[in-house]
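Two folds, back to back.
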Amino acid sequence: MRVLHVLPTAQARGAQVYARLLADELGSPTDRHSIATLFTSPGGDAVRVEHPATAPAGRLRRVWVDPRGVWRVRHLVHEERPDVVVCHGLDTLKYASLIARRKRPALLALAIGTNGARTGPRRRLYAALLRRASLVGAVSSDVAVDLEALYGISAVLLRNGRDVRGRPAHRPDVLATPVVAFVGQLTKGKRPELFIEVVRRLRGRGVDLAAVMIGDGPRTAGVRAAAREAGVSMLGRREDVAQLLAESDVLLFTSRPEGEGLPGVLIEAALAALPIVATDVPGVADVVLHDVSGTICAVGDVEAFVDAAERLLRDGQLRERWGRAARQHAEEHLSLSATLPAWSHALSRVHEGPAHRPRQRRTVHPRGR
């Protein structure tokens, strides 16, 4: 079986990183897996791909479809002759689904997050695109629920995972000052300002802590002064995130719901045996077990978020207990070895056919969050 994984770009984000792991682990003498990108990454390719794009996306991509992406998929299919094309993200599905039917291999469409197409013509367009796929997958339970509520599509659960091998785990030190960490792009959706505000409020309550912010992005310059005032160390983009997490004590995840599906940083933190305080966005409940390995707070409830962080920072034994539970849950459900069987089964199901068409319900009721 020849499988072509198509990514929009090769940026080092959770879905792209997992696609590389997936292709490497499932590839064999009988099953060939390769990765292609539709467009170049703004900062250069961070994920290894066999078929890198050479052109950046144009303005038409923001409107709906960049025709160059359609031609690229058509060329890749003609050259590679894949049996299955895996579309990582519904944005990618737009391009693969537009290939002429006689040239189109089986499509496995993976929804990796919410896309905002909740009303009007775009919702109907996405529903039509999803029906063209042989099988639809969702990276988390929340994304699967949204697919059925928005588009009437039943999806199989195909979670992202991470490789546990050689991954360091946090070693608690009750005598050391606890470290809270933020990991992610410094964008509006990730809300780095909220992380800084939580640290400021914790210090105002007399909580002893150190705080680090790992990542960069368009809001870097805008939060620098506030971070300095709150005593937050901005470490920028780092390649040793796993080690930095192992040296931290609590992860604070402050994101908004838009665009989230199964936040990779939560899996990274859980495998590092960190308890997590997180906002209630899609995919969080698949990683964080509320009051077992962390706390899930309403997106707008800053006070509850600060309370949850304070509770962990003042109780070293609770941090250690929840951290062990986080690591155990991640190993059992979100490690590479735990997620591969579902992928193997889904690819075989699509390849061996007859083509399975996603079931569509007649009545669609959008699910608010």
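---
second:
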Amino acid sequence: MSKKAKLSAGQKKQAILKASIEILSEKGPHAFKNSEVAKRAKIDQPLISYYFPNFEALFAGVVQIVLEDLRVAMINAIEAGGEDPERALANYMVSPLRWTVRSPKLQTIWLYFYTLIPINKDMKALNSQIRKVGRERIQLLIYKILEERNCRLSPKYTVATLAYSIQSIITGYLTMQVTEDSNLEQMEKLSFQNALDLIDKAFIKN
């Protein structure tokens, strides 16, 4: 009889993170215990503390997976817009809604991550960083729209404030999609319309 193959350190960490995602998404944070994770990952419980010394470290690893998955979805949405920056921006705005359908387990953890931001300085710092990067992506698309349309922004806006407004719309619709029994198609249409309305108000022909 052949011996069971041993897992590498990387495989063990991935098994722990995968089990953590499953437990958090299925049962919530109250069931997020080392004993439950070890059982689900089929590893010895002390290994969890070896790789992740505390809850914060383990949850940070889970959050990184969730946010990276969402980031990739949003980048792909921009690229799907091709050479049309306006379409790329609209795609970007609805991509988190589509992500909730593609990654139902991760959306639950995304919401839990946001509940920790006011009380956890590391989560708050991480959120500030990802939102900053997101606004920079939006600003780049705004500059491309200005160039392609040969227009300027309304005096009510700057590129920075317009990017902030767009990001607020994205976060608002994503939160609604995760917390309510919403119709995805309807939410997408509303998000697209919000994007178009905002663009029409913000951009003025030269």
